Amino acid sequence: MATGTDPFLIIGGGPAALSAAHAYREAGGQRPILMLSEDGEPPYLRPPLSKDFLRGESGEDALPIESPAYYRERRIEFSPGDPVTSMDTGARTVTTRAGRTVTYGRCLLATGSEPVRPDVPGAGDPAVLTLRSAASARLLRERADGASGAVVVGSGFIGCEAAVSLARRGLGVTMLCRDSVPQRRRLGADAGRVLRDWLTGEGVEVRTGTALAAVEDGRRVRTDRDETIDAGIVLLATGVRPRADLAEQAGLTVEKGRIRTDEHLRTSAPEVFAAGDVALAHNAAARRPLPVEHWGEAETMGELAGRAAADSPGRWTSVPGFWSVIGDRVLKYAAWGDEVDEARFTGHSGGAFTVWYGRRGATAGVLTHGADEDYEAGAELVRNGAPLP
C-alpha cells in the first residue's frame, strides 16, 4: 500500500518529465522523485538533433538539459535504460523490464512517442534510419560522415530540418514529398511553396507527389513512380506514434491513441497524471482536448502535472505553438491544430511573411517568418477566437 514517503514516480525522460520534476519541487512537493526511462541517458535537448548537432556544429556537451548536480540538489533519482513494462493503478505499483517493482504515491506518464515506419517492404531494415533520440542522431551523424547521398522520406519539420542539415554536410539529398508541396495540408499551399523553395535553395531535390514504395538493402528506395534512387542513407521522417501501450494495459482511458486527461493533466486513475506527446489533455481555453507534439507544450504540460502532483494545480490554457529552424530560417507557429478553411498569406520585406489561418471566420492559427509581432499577437487572437486580421 502506498504511503506518504513513496515517490512521485515519473515514467519517461523527455521535456515533460523533467519539467514535471522541476515544477513539483518548486511547488513544494516533498516526496522523493524517481524517473524511470527507456532512454539510456538523462533528459537532453532534442531540437538540436536535426539541426546543429547533426551538422556537427555542436557536440555532446550541448545536449544535457541539466547537470548531475541539479538532480542531486533536488533529490531526483534518474534510472535510465529500464522502462516500465506493467502498471497496477489499484496497488499503485509498476514493474520494470529488469524486474524492479516500485510503489508510488503519485505518478506521471510522460512516455512520449516513437517514430512510425511506413508499411512498405524494407522499411523495417535496421539500416533504415529514423531521428528521434540522441542515439539515433549519433548514428545518423556517423553514417553521414562516409555517405555521398541521402533520401529523406517525409516533408514534416523534422524531415525539412534534417534534409537541410545533411545537404550542408555535403550530401546529395533527395526528399520524397507525397503532396504537391511540403506540408500543404498543415500550412497551406503558399507556405508550402516557400518551404519547397528554401529546400531547393539549400541543394535538396524535392520530389513532390511522390511516395515511398519500398527500400532495398537498406540503402536504395523505390518510389510509387517506379523510380529507384541509390541513397546511401535512407532517413524516415514519416511521423510518430504516442507510446500509450502502458496506459492501455493499466486500464486508463485512452482516446485516439493518447491518454485522456483533464485540464490539470489528471488521468482516469487516482494519483496518475499524463503529459507531453502521449497525453490528450483538455485545454480550458479551447474547451476541448487537444493532441500536441511540440517541445514547448510538453514542458508546459509537464509543469502543470508536476504542480498538480504537489497539490498546487493550474489549468492548461495556452495555445500550442512551436519554432522550427530550417537552415538559418526560423518558422514560428501557434494554432489549436484544427482543420482550417482559410489561409491568408501576406509577404513582408526581406522574405518575411505571415500566414493567418481561419476556421469559420475566427482566427485558428498563425505562421510567421521574420514577423515576430504577428506571432506574438496571433496566439492571443487564436485564444480569444477573434476574427481573422
In whole angstroms, how far apart are the ends? 56 Å
- Total number of β-strand segments? 27
**Rg calc:** 21 Å
Structural class per helix/strand content?
alpha/beta
**Overall helicity:** 10-25%
Q: CATH superfamily of the largest domain, please?
A: FAD/NAD(P)-binding domain
CATH class of the largest domain: Alpha Beta
Shape: globular
What portion of residues belong to β-strands? Answer: 25-35%
- Adjacency order of strands in the biggest sheet: 3-2-1-7-20
Oligomer: single chain
Mean of residue pLDDT values: 96
- What do we call the CATH topology of the largest domain? FAD/NAD(P)-binding domain
Number of domains: 3
CATH-defined architecture of the largest domain? 3-Layer(bba) Sandwich
Low-confidence runs (pLDDT<50, min 5 residues)?
Answer: none
The total count of helices amounts to 10
Mind summarizing the main beta sheet? 5 strands, parallel
Features:
FAD/NAD(P)-binding domain, globular, 389 residues, five-stranded parallel β-sheet, alpha/beta, 3 domains
